[in-house]
Every structure is written in C-alpha cells, then in structure tokens.
Amino acid sequence: MDFRVRQQREALLAPPRYRRGERDHGRRPHEDPMSPKIHNGGDALLGAIGLGAVAGIRSMTPPALLSRAASRGEIRGIAGTPYGFLASPRVARILTVLAVGEMSADKLPFSPDRISLPGLAGRLATGALVGAALYAADKREGATGGALGALSSLATSYASYYLRTGTQQRFGLPNPAGGIVEDAIALSLGLRSLKSAKG
Predict the structure, then answer these.
(1) Which CA distances in Å does 146 have to 57, 132, 135, 152, 164?
(2) Residue-wise over 173-199: b if at least 16 C-beta within 10 A, else e?
(3) Fewer beta carbons under 10 A from the terminal one: N or C of the chain?
(4) What percent of the chain is modeled with pLDDT above 70?
C-alpha cells in the first residue's frame, strides 16, 4: 500500500511530459490539436455554429457582435488574421449601424424574402465570415469555420422564414411584431454564442 501511495505521489509531483514538438508550439501536454477549444478559453465550434445561425435570422448582427467583442479585446487573435479588420473600432461602429438598419428595414412591408437569392447569399456570406474569423483566431483552418457558419446560416434562414410566415398566417401576427420577436432571438442567441466563444 505504501508503495502505491508513493507511486501516486511521484506521478503528481513529476513535471509534465511533452510529446515531440509540443513545447515549441506552446500547447499543454497531450493537448489535442484538433480540439475546437480556442485560446480565448471558449469553444470555436459552438461560436461558429451559433453565430452562423444568427446570420440566418439577421445577417448583419453576427459580424457586428463579433467586431464589437474583438475591438474590445474580448476575442483575442483575430487581429493577426485575414479577418483582422473586424477588430477595428471603426468597423465595429459601421457594422453596428448596418445591423440596426437591417432590423428596421425588416419591419417594412416591401422587405424582400430572406430566402430569395440575394438575401440568402448575404446571410451565407456573413455566416461564413464569423465562423472563419473565430476559427482563424484560434490558429485553425478558417475554411472549416466558414463552412460551419454558412451551413448553420442556411438552415436557420429557411427555418426562421417558414416559422415566421406560418405564425403570421395562423395567428394573424403583424409583420413588425414578428420582426421584433426575431430581433430578440437573434440578439440573445448571438450574445450566448459569443459567450461560448469567449469561455
């Protein structure tokens, strides 16, 4: 019994064992390089999917939220990537104005359907942008994050469209009221997704 206790104590006190090349790359011992956990302490996978889903509801809200967080230093690592412009306070302000404008325009009766080609393409683009930026910030393959964000955006674009139109037809809900509900959902999901990314 004493021998086992001594073995356990020695194992706990022993310095960490690194595989070849791990110390040079700054990783913890035996850390999986394919893990979606990002160096901000959060989860790049959940962040990309969550913000991509928001893009299907409000296309400009995800880049606005991500840019505001990056410009405040809450999401680290973006500045040194091709998506570094998102960390600019000026870009954050511009994207915020665009996001607010989109929310206002969504309530208008002549607002185009989100699943029409131009609108859908824009949602896929912003979903891909935020997903790629989160993955690139963690020194991972931006294309993977972009694909996740775009696919998530595609799914929620159709889901939210049919949910909103179906609700309006069944319950006679005015278009602006449905838009306000969507605004609240988009902001709530966007903030929760950012929280997941930040850890």
Answers:
(1) 17, 4, 8, 10, 26
(2) eeeeebbeebbebbbebbeebbbbbbe
(3) N
(4) 79
